[in-house]
Predict the structure.
Amino acid sequence: MRTPPADRTRTGARVRTRPIPEATVARLPVYLRVLGELAAQQIQTVSSERLAEAAGVNPPKVRKDLSYLGSYGTRGVGYDVEYLVYQISRELGLTQDWPVAIVGMGNLGQALAGYKGFGERGFRIMALFDKDIERVGQTVSGLTIEHIDDLEGSLKEKDIRVAIVATPAQAAQETAERLVAAGVRSILNFAPTVLTVPDKIHLRQVDLSVELQILAFYEQRNAGKKRTAAAGDGAH
Amino acid sequence: MRTPPADRTRTGARVRTRPIPEATVARLPVYLRVLGELAAQQIQTVSSERLAEAAGVNPPKVRKDLSYLGSYGTRGVGYDVEYLVYQISRELGLTQDWPVAIVGMGNLGQALAGYKGFGERGFRIMALFDKDIERVGQTVSGLTIEHIDDLEGSLKEKDIRVAIVATPAQAAQETAERLVAAGVRSILNFAPTVLTVPDKIHLRQVDLSVELQILAFYEQRNAGKKRTAAAGDGAH
DNA sequence: AACTGTGAACGGGTTCACAGCC
DNA sequence: GGCTGTGAACCCGTTCACAGTT
């Protein structure tokens, strides 16, 4: 690369020339996790080959993905683990803290409230809500569960704009609407139902059974093959 | 389509001519969920347009996806909800039951054990394991938690070939290896670490914080715009 | 020598437009 | 008339090959 980094500010932040492809954005968290594990093992440098293997992709893809962030590697050497962690974190917006609320304190809500992976990435669980009077007032992961009717006031007070929905399916849509009304801009939905929100709201859906269904699809194929084989083998 | 369904057996099962694209397989569970909700509302027929909207995709994509399964729609009318549910279920291998084990009975494991969405899709949670003596013997969702040392015997006895890993990160790799040794062929990993398994094993990873990180990325953009503007900066 | 960074070729997946059918 | 099914065009993303750098 001949041109000096005219597309960089002096903090190293790259002025976005071209947007990062969605597919790449979706892989950055995976790289981040792998890099975190490498850092924990005191490994200082990593090649695209090693990173690729750990992340379950191929080396050129790693290099291409990382090149969208900037030229943060060293030819002949590899990538500095710590520096790369920082750059990816910054790109994903994880160098700042994100206050997060969870609505629905059943098993899943409780599991999410205690999930270490959030805190490590800057997501601070700051408020928990439930409809059930029995649960309100209980402490989960150091936070007191508030009643859902305090949602609006509490969120505004704490300036929370990211929320996780972990309610039963039938309560999810109403919950989402209240969240939006209370100023929430991003919603992560774990409830097993499809939510409708205004266009400006970022919504992502996690269906815990989707991955299992995908596994079943591929497993079924094999099973099919196997059984046929077992019934009079020939194919291996 | 002029040719008669020479690629169909008399049960309506399509003899796979071309493999279903991976991207389509990943969307089938979403359609299935939406169709389930429509069926619950007694809706009998749905157009690709309505289905697309509820699933968060566009109509041609729905039609293309469904066309890989066969011609199960009626021109001028739409798709029969119930029939389509059946066809997608069959394609995904959900018309049979899948016995499933869960290893790691912390909050997340317990939440998964009680997750309704599994049972609705034919996934039967048949065994729960934990390392902690305190937990062994306790009942969760009608099942008694077994000690991890009984893993091999119990899995073989129950002929379980699909397992969910919900252990802490440091125990996940060892758990996976024991599962594989015990004959498990598909693993769904919720532990926040990257697993290595033999090629023949189907592995899928669910990282509860990945989606939140993706949300943060897009949220940051907006916020960035906002704050820059607020700070009086000229660049937009 | 080793490994990154990237234009270019390639391919899978998405979208389009319309033919086909009810 | 309305809606599906699908070849063809298009496009995003992946892969390749190698130039560039330490």
Summary: Chain A has three domains: 22-92, 98-205, 210-236. The first helix of chain A runs from residue 22 to 40.
